Structure formats: C-alpha cells, structure tokens
Amino acid sequence: MAEIKATKRLDITGDCCPITFVKTKLALEEMQPGEILEVLLTEGEPLSNVSRSLKAEGHKILQVKKIGANIYSLIVARGEEQ
Amino acid sequence: MALDFHELKKGGFIKQQGRDLFLMRLRAIGGHLTSRDLENIARIAAKYGRGEVHLTTRQGVEIPGVRLEQYQELIAEVKALNLLPGACGPRVRSIVACPGKEICPNGVIDTRAIAGELDRAFFGRDIPVKFKMAVAGCYNACTKPMENDVGLQGVVYPELVAGRCSLCGLCQSICPGGAIKIMNDRVSMDRKKCHGDGACIASCPNNAWVTATTGFVVYVGGKMGRNPQLGYKMFEFVPENDVVPLINSIIVVYEEKRKGQERLADVIRRLGPEVFRELIPYSGREEVAAGGGN
Ligand code: SF4
Ligand code: SF4
C-alpha cells in the first residue's frame, strides 16, 4: 500500500490507558477533518483500545504498521466534526 | 405486627453479630441501581439500621443493625420503594453481571437484559443448596463466570464482507487469538483460534467485519469458598434464547443426581463432566464451537 503522509505525529509509546486515547483525541481535535495523524503506540491494550475508541469517535484508521519489536504506527484520518 | 414467616422464609433477612440484630440484604440485578434506589437505600439504612451499608461480593447491598421487631415495617417499605430483597440459604442467589456492551467498550452482549431474564426465571428458587450465577459481557470474564454454579460469558463470532476491506492491517494486529491473517492482499480467519471477543468488529474502520452470531459460553459447576473449583466450559455456544431452558435443565438434572448437601460442583466432580453433560437434554450448537460459525 502506498505511503500516506501524516501532517502530525504523536508518540504515546510511554503512556498508558486512559492517557493514550486522551492525548490522541486532543491531538485530533486540533486538526482539520481529513488531516492525517500518525500515532506511535505499543501493542496490546494501547493498540486495541485506541483503535476501538478512534472508530467510536468517528475517526478513520487508514494504515497499521509494525515498526518495532512491540511498536505500531497508526495512520489516522481525522473525522468530521460531530 | 405479627411476623410474616412466609415472607421471612424467602430470605434476605439475616442474623448478624449482636443480640437481636439482623441485617437486611438487598439485591441489585446485575449490579444496577438508580440514583433513586441509592437515595432510598440511604434513607432506610438511616431509619432502620445505623446509617451505613455493606456491599456484598455479589453486588448486593446489606443494611446492618436492624431489629427483628422492625422487620415487617422494613420489608413493607422495601417493597413500596421498589427495592429488591436479596436471598440467603438454599436458593438461587442474586444474578451478578458486568456493565456489558451498554457501557463497556469491550462488551459484546447486553448484560442488563440477560441478567434481568435470569432474575425473572430463577431468582429465589428453592433448591437444595445455594446456587450462583454470573454474566460477563465478553471474553475478559470480569465477573468470573467460572467461579459460579452457572456462568455465562458473552461471545460474538464475526464474518468478513471482503469487498469493504481496505487492507489497513488493523484486525490482524489486534486479534487476541491470532486468528486473523492478511496474506497476498487477502484477509483470512482461522475460526478455531477465534476467541469471540469482537475486537475486529468493534475496530475495523470500514465495517468489513460484521456480526455473524452472538451468544454465550456457559461454564457449569464452579464454586469458591472452602473447596474451590472452577466451572467446566460445558457449552461452547448457546444463543440467548436457549439460555433459560438450558439452565433450567441443568438445575433439574442437578436436583435428580445430587446426594445430600452436594453443590453442583460436587455432583459434577463425582459423575465426571462428560457424564453430566450427556444428562442435559440440549442438542446445542456445538458445530459453532470455538468460532465454528458457518
Ligand atoms: S467482562 Fe468484558 S464487557 Fe464485561 S466489564 Fe469485563 S471487559 Fe467489559
Ligand atoms: S481491519 Fe477491516 S479494513 Fe483493516 S484489514 Fe481488517 S478487515 Fe480490512
């Protein structure tokens, strides 16, 4: 799949729930609909919980890549305003 | 006021430490109480008890410090306020449940609905020993269904609408059983590895994973206390409509086979879980076991 360029990058690999999603949500709120955010997070709970919450709040994951031993990159398109 | 032994026998009014002192046990079906219930409980705890409550391990509320002579008045007030007395002794005890999908992002079933159904069908039924049931809304099993005589754990089995998939890679990365693999731009699933926890359905950004079927894993014969025993995963997949008749059959077979004060766990240990399973007239949907689906 083609590389998608993110306009902003957020590293939450050092955070745990609920800070992980709260930081992601706040970062997305500062962006425009359709703008791309890259989120770096660890596998397991952060990956599954943040992904689920992103969908629930109307944002869209475009790509998921494993970029380290237990680190993933999520490419997220910011959703429309609710 | 004369003591109503019929009412007293249903349970919930329990002798506590101290001369002439009893406690009133209330139940909260699946742990749900409204603000109104809480206000009413606070009021009766101050009026009949000593202004405090104790929360039980089975999501009940106990009001200590009540005197026997206050029982009639208290139970009348409990009923008038639509509060629900709890159970004690050899009966089906209150139904424990987690918040389920209504509240918990992991939840795959509506635990409030099924807990209500179980309460209506079974709560307070007189059987030879105590009998406990718990409902968990997903594979995480927070309410410990396997520690109960009968425990339900919600499962959802997914199916793929391949045309919607954008190959983002998410489901493969979050599937807890490692059941989903993406190879050569194709998503595939090994149903035998599926835990039925619905992570793919809840997270797929394109709604490519959809619900094929929901139901329950049913654990049978668990108990804690002095001789703990985890329940057997006796039924891999039971649709919601089959749950009440199935539990009913389990209780009937238990009552036929038990000796003396045996709990369900003891009967199953004595007979063996396979033999006990054979005695239950439930043909089941074993073909969808472990994610069998279609
Ligand atoms: S069992 Fe599942 S649905 Fe219920 S509280 Fe735990 S995680 Fe949530
Ligand atoms: S999460 Fe959905 S869109 Fe992404 S690979 Fe899986 S099925 Fe396809």
Report the CATH C-level class of chain A: Alpha Beta
CATH superfamily of chain A: TusA-like domain
Following the backbone from N to C, one meets helices and strands of chain B in this order, namely HEEHEEHEEHEEHEEHEEHHH
Total number of strands of chain A: 4
Number of strands of chain B: 12
Please characterize this protein's 3D structure:
The complex is a heterodimer of chains A (82) and B (294). Chain A has 82 residues and is α+β, with helices and mostly antiparallel strands. Chain A has helices spanning 19-29, 45-56; strands at 8-11, 36-42, 60-66, 71-77. Chain A has a 4-stranded mixed β-sheet, with helices on one face. Chain B has helices at residues 5-9, 35-48, 71-80, 111-122, 170-174, 199-203, 240-257, 264-271, 273-279; strands at residues 13-15, 21-27, 54-55, 61-67, 84-85, 96-97, 133-136, 150-160, 180-183, 186-189, 209-220, 232-238. In chain B, the strands form 3 sheets. In chain B, strands 1, 2, 3, 4 and 5 form a 5-stranded antiparallel β-sheet that branches. In chain B, strands 6-7-8-11-12 form a 5-stranded mixed β-sheet. In chain B, a hairpin with a 5-residue loop joins strand 3 (54-55) and strand 4 (61-67). The radius of gyration of chain B is 22 Å and the shape is globular. The termini of chain B are far apart. The relative contact order of chain B is 0.11. Classes of the chains: A alpha+beta (82), B alpha+beta (294). Chain A binds chain B through residues 1, 43, 47-49, 51-56, 60-66, 72, and chain B through 105, 166-170, 173-174, 176, 199, 202-205. The complex binds iron/sulfur cluster (2 copies).
